[in-house]
Amino acid sequence: MNYLDLLEEAKKASAMAYAPYSQFPVGAALLTASGEVFTGCNVENASYGLTICAERVAVTKAVSAGFREFKAIAVFAPTGEPVSPCGACRQVLAEFSPDGEVIMGNGKGDYVVAKVAELLPGAFSLKTDKNSR
Ligand code: THU
What we know:
This protein has helices at residues 3-14, 54-64, 87-96, 116-119, and strands spanning 27-32, 37-41, 70-76, 101-105, 111-115.
């Protein structure tokens, strides 16, 4: 799947966002190393700090289905500027795929691409083997 198609999946996923507090819907679509796509949207809560971002929903769906390596993740929000993943999501993405590409899109069809490691240089790591079960 190419980046534009992945971004389209992220846009579709943003329609499922539960964002009554921020009114800021976000969608994400994660492409695994073997070609599967997992989507996510932000899920807010009346206790605001419990909100989970679209990117982390997509990552946890992929990991819980047995996929730990991703090639790319597209993130979409209907904004002016391409949406940029928050610091917490960058750390979670770095756990699994520092070389993964992040495609950041907006409501105008623009997007920018950067590697996870570029978005979060010096990510925290305990140097454990993520592939051991
Ligand atoms: N949000 C995401 O889902 N992903 C991002 O990359 C940025 C922020 C969500 C969290 C919250 O529901 C809303 O956007 C406003 O912060």
